[in-house]
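ok trying this again, last paste got cut off
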Amino acid sequence: MPSPASLKTLAYTSRARLDLGEEELRHIHQQARHLNALDGITGLLMFDGARFLQIVEGTEEAVDDLVERLRRDPRHSAFEIRDERMVGSRSFPDWNMEMVQVSAGYLNARSEIASLLPSATSDAVRELALRMSDELSRGA
């Protein structure tokens, strides 16, 4: 188990490929859960029908390796890291990778995400998730 000082959390956004279908989205989620479990990565994946927001946490090496894989993945583009920091504990200790499809409406997206975040979620990561869900719902 990594020491608290070696945990990294990272948030990114990207645009889904235009022809990304429901079956492929399910495959992305299943693949993320499997690979993240192997790498000790936990987190949250949000999708609004056109864009992804993902918050991941794990050892610095595992998160950095994941980012490199994500940058090469042809199923999305416009990959942009939005937040990156070292943390003392996990916000998603029991989530290999949960996926939430957010509604287009600002209030719906915010309340959907707020209701799903685990109690272990730090204030900083909670605020980040809510801010990013706001951006997704406004099309930012």
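PB: full thing came through this time. Residues 22-39 form the longest helix (18 residues).
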